[in-house]
Design brief:
mainly alpha, 4 helices
């Protein structure tokens, strides 16, 4: 169950990171509130997952999933580049996440 909570925490982590783009430097109230709520939910869920999982593993997986999610959303929503080297680096992060899950 802790892994499911951690996955949800990471999804909210990626959501607030992407949401920052919509805040326009915190000048737009609704996107700012949504990003803030996502940040809070992400942190609470991470804390719950960390009660069971080793903190190093939990934190690495949490941030790794958020990095991959934010990079993919950046490409899909904002037209950010996905060069071969960037895709390869995202792939390495993904392999690391999977490795931590499998060997933890």
């Amino acid at each position: 169950m802790a892994w499911v909570v951690l996955l949800l925490a990471a999804v909210f982590e990626a959501a607030w990171a992407v949401g920052l783009k919509f805040t326009d430097g915190f000048t737009r109230p609704v996107p700012t509130m949504v990003a803030g709520i996502c940040m809070l939910v992400s942190t609470v869920l991470m804390a719950l997952a960390a009660k069971t999982l080793p903190i190093g593993t939990a934190y690495a997986v949490w941030t790794g999933i958020a990095i991959v999610g934010a990079a993919v959303c950046g490409a899909l929503l904002f037209g950010e580049s996905l060069t071969l080297i960037r895709v390869m680096c995202i792939g390495l992060i993904t392999v690391g996440i999977i490795g931590l899950r499998v060997f933890s």
